Predict the structure.
Amino acid sequence: MTLTTENNAKKIGILIEFENGKIKKAEYGVITAAREAGHELYALVTETEEIDCRESLQIYGIEKIVMLSSKPEHLKQNPVRQAKAIIMAMNHFGIHTLCGLTSPWGKDLLPRIAAALDAPLVIDCLHVNFADNIAQKPQYSGKTVADIKVRGTYYIFGIRPNVTEAVEAPCRAEIIHFETNVDSKRFKVKDVKPGASRGVNLSEADIIISGGRAMRNTENYKILYDCAEVLNAAVGASRVAVDAGWVPHAMQVGQTGATVNPKLYIACGISGSVQHFAGMKTAGIIVAVNTDPDANMMRNCDYGITGDLFEIVPIFTRQLKEVPELNQL
Amino acid sequence: MKIYVCIKHVPDSAVQITLMAKNQIDESVTFLMNPYDEHAVEEAVRLKERIADCEVVAVTLGKEGALSTLQSALAMGADRGVFIKTDDPPDAILTAKLLATAISQDGLPDIIFTGKESIDSQGMQTAFRIGAALDIPVAVNVAALSLDWDSNQVSNQNRVLAECEKSGGDRDVIEMHLPCVIGAGKSLNLPRYPTLPQIMKARKKKIKQIDPDSLGIEKPLASMEILKLQVTTYKRKNRILEGSPEQAVSRLIKCLHEEEKVF
């Protein structure tokens, strides 16, 4: 074995992602995880509208906030231009390590940046050791966890939402405006078609209630939505329900759907195939409701109730309404 | 028109994964075509059925066994195969360079299809790296695709509209000039099951085997190396809550509230 000098990055860039005009909650976990390395943290913001994010970012230890923009072609919703602008900022500020959320946006943007820089990229990290550039990530649909050593000039990591609890570390952040003139001649975003699923984004939800084969039709999902409203949860589904056309694919949890990592996952009438577990096995607490006590989900849950979901879920919803903590939301 | 489809031979999603060495899984399990790649092959074959003078070439990189996945693509309707055979499959950085080089040495692609990700390594990056290697645009998680093809046009005057699935089922409608890379998502189509005659016919189709060393690619400076794999186990409490539905639910809420403190 030969000893090599690691090019330890002194600055870590963090892609800041917004939702409804606010920084995504899961982002503070990413910042907290990156802070452990003890390097200077640069927040990279690509929103075109001026959003005052200084307060929220400096509470978590961000020292520099780089507001990226581009003229005449703006950055909004165009990942090709965003990737180019971010690379320019990385080079300008000497940022060699970049982190973002493993969200739909991150899954599109981080590999564009990595590909352009010919840099290593590990997506969906459960943990990153920034000193040695070793990332832990699930492979084989969560059946294994791999320790991946990355080597190169740049290091890019997508962090799975909710793996690190956000911890405050207040400091004073400086805002830096960074204007570019990037383009994307052969790639244009023409339109955005709104999706059919309502409510919270599955992959970053804290609580998810999912329905499977036992749901029987689209209308019956209402009882899950009623419950989700009280819990401030997202509603998911198993592959059976998606293939039957009861709910859109965006709601599917599992191997060929969303990978989720909530604090609480409530599986209603889901038998619990290997493929479904692939998408939700890292959930903090799993609750199963099933008429079949021998269903795989019932055998691999934290709390199970043997019973008909059409009876159990409405009772659950009604009783939840009486929990004072939930009513303060 | 020339379409390339990159496919990967992966362990069946239903199998148990066990380890052979600290960074190596036991490969004596059922392997098949990566599920997202089936959607990629299907879309390519559908274009071929619609467009005159269109060739679909399936490309894979892998060990000897990957030949069966290449055969599956041929049975689905691909015209021929390119097999980059290696006993030691490299990381995504080198894999993408090998695929891109093998493709450009074979012909001039108009569209390169891949699956949006592979279900084994789940690196979610090969499509983007192929695009970067060939300097062509990329869209992944594509749920719908439309193509205006005019064979009289030079390739880069032709365009595709790709609908890419985002969070909450939102779709970005992206226009790209050809050539481009399309990463197929699950909603793109329903892959066909080849019939027995199609499977038989596929055995006669040509497969070009390539030694990765012959592609003349320098070892990239950047790399990703798996140091260690661990089979995950999640210990669950497995407490079945007894009593009437009212009682069981009230016990559940007590557990979630007082013990687990989820709310």
